[in-house]
Amino acid sequence: MTKNLQIDVDERGYYGRFGGAYIPEMLHPNVEELRTRYREMTADPDFKQEFDALLKDYVGRPSPLYYAKRMSAHYGTNIYLKREDLNHTGAHKINNTIGQILVAQRLGKKRIIAETGAGQHGVATATVCALVGLECIVYMGEVDIARQAPNVARMRMLGAEVRPAKSGSRTLKDATNEAIRDWINNPEDTHYIIGSVVGPHPYPDMVARFQSVISEEMKWQLQEQVGRDYPDAIVACVGGGSNAAGAFYHYLNDDRVRLVAVEAAGLGIDSGESAATSVLGTEGIIHGSRTLLMQTEDGQVIEPYSISAGLDYPGIGPLHAFLIDSKRAEAISVTDEDALAAALFTARTEGIIPALETAHAFSALDQMEYGKDDVIVVCLSGRGDKDLAAFTSYLDRLPEE
Amino acid sequence: MNRLTHLFNTKKQDLLNVYFTAGYPQLSSTVTIIRSLADAGADLIEVGVPYSDPMADGETIQQSSMAALRNGMTLDILFAQLAEARRATEIPLVLMGYYNQVMQYGPERFVRAAREAGVDGLILPDLPVYEYEQEFRAIAEAHDLQVTFLITPQTSDERIAKIGTLSTGFIYVVSSSSITGKSGGITDTQKAYFARIAALDLPQPKLIGFGISDATSFRTACHYANGAIIGSAFIRALKGEEDVAAATKRFVEGILEPVS
Question: Nearest Cα to A209, choosing from A251, A245, A255?
Answer without folding.
Answer: A245
